[in-house]
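Hi C.,

You asked whether I'd gotten around to modeling the 302-residue construct. I have! Everything is below, sequence then structure, no commentary in between.
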Amino acid sequence: MMDHQDAHDLGLAHDLKAMTQLASRRRALGWFAGASGAAMLAACDGGSGDSATSGSAGTATATPTPTPSATATPTPSATATSGSCVVDPTETNGPYPADGTNTSSGVTSNVLTAANVVRSDIRSSFLGSSTATAAGVEVVLTLTLVDVNAACAPLAGYAIYIWHCDRDGKYSLYDLPAESYLRGVGVTDSNGQVRFTTIFPGCYAGRWPHIHFEVFSSLANATGGRYATLVSQLAMPSAACSTVYNGASGYSTSVRNLAGVSLSSDNVFGDNSSAQIAQQTPVMSGSVAAGYTATAVIGIAR
């Protein structure tokens, strides 16, 4: 058996080393004792809010709440649904708006500033000396304006200006400068609705049959001109177009023009989503003889 060497009488150098190690062990034991005591005190404190900032070892740093990344919750697009409505897309107001934004034959027309522009039946001319009434199949159109960002809640007190061509595909104040029919403004009621009596528009070459409209946040803004919240269009239903054009007098040119266009190839409606097209297309019922009723929802995001 190997003899163990005694740990004494090994000289001054050895003694100094041993004393240093002993002192280090005592300091370590003292530190652990202090830490254990602090831990016990913290446990007895029950985790109160004050313990986070007490003590002499330093100030505790709060753990930050993670911030969601920018892509965690996508921002809804312009066609995002809320309930059963979508935001109507912005469309061109075309070359014949008579809203003060363009000229015809050097004259700027702005029916929005006319005193009698607010009217429900828009079939007759109301400016100048003409009182002519546009001929065609009657359509009673009810528009419901809703807020897509508020679960399709109706918007009351808004003004909607509509205009469209006659059964020959011509626009008043432009193709027919002496006439001002098929134009008018209505104010939405408590149900967000406004009603117009008009005619079924004709189909002219290169465009799907349509009705233009502009939405204003108030009648004052509408009659002030150039303050539209939304400029867009309604697409007439295909089945109704075929029935009216083939069954009513005065629409003969529309039969030929309709055969040369489609919703998908139309330069306004062609790039819209199916949800947008569905909302932009009025729901219609009736007949050529009795006339039609039509309803459509217009969605805006406030």
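If it helps when you're writing up: The domain at 99-300 is CATH 2.60.130.10 (Protocatechuate 3,4-Dioxygenase, subunit A).

Thanks,
B.
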